[in-house]
Amino acid sequence: xxxxxxxxxxxxxxxxxxxxxxxxxxxxxxxxxxxxxxxxxxxxxxxxxxxxxxxxxxxxxxxxxxxxxxxxxxxxxxxxxxxxxxxxxxxxxxxxxxxxxxxxxxxxxxxxxxxxxxxxxxxxxxxxxxxxxxxxxxxxxxxxxxxxxxxxxxxxxxxxxxxxxxxxxxxxxxxxxxxxxxxxxxxxxxxxxxxxxxxxxxxxxxxxxxxxxxxxxxxxxxxxxxxxxxxxxxxxxxxxxxxxxxxxxxxxxxxxxxxxxxxxxxxxxxxxxxxxxxxxxxxxxxxx
Length: 288
Description:
single chain
């Protein structure tokens, strides 16, 4: 691809100055909390974890304690991806799925391994797309799993071409009404959308200081809980399951805060979750 073609592609995908700043952030991101965890089994995620951690990882030899913590955090983040996939409904090998904001590709690869189906991932980070495609190539699944430098707000995929779509901690970077309009276009009738996200608690009014710190750290704009349901309803996406995962994610953050791969944002997450100003939700909705 020529330089001109590359520039045109970037311009068409990154529509605003904000989107460019987000892409720059993730193109440059090389946090150990993502990379060291992925090195455990070559499955790389960009989300958090669920479930209680095994306290024995903090015991025993100090020389290997950090590695035990890394392995346990990776187990918890993989468990989170499994919970998301559990809510996609019946998926058959002939179905096509979309991972919107696919990061380094971990959940897409897991979906293909579980269902045998085709999965497309989209990201506005060219670095993530290249990394994820290399992961698919190394596994010999490029005929089924591919990652694309595209904007989830306008993917370019065919109308009604998807049986299921998911977002895993990516919706805080986009306008929900525009996003769900695109997902409603892409999903076949009766298709399923699953979202796992952190959202601010409307009951407490405006966002807390802890939630604002999370926004600043990740260059994102966390939506309120009610905003999700308004945007879903406006676009013909009807919730069938809503699961509060807040209590289930706190152990991950407590373990991460004790690890050498902590990034400094752990205290804000723990404060926000424990004070109730921030919720970790799974929402599964069907296209009508």
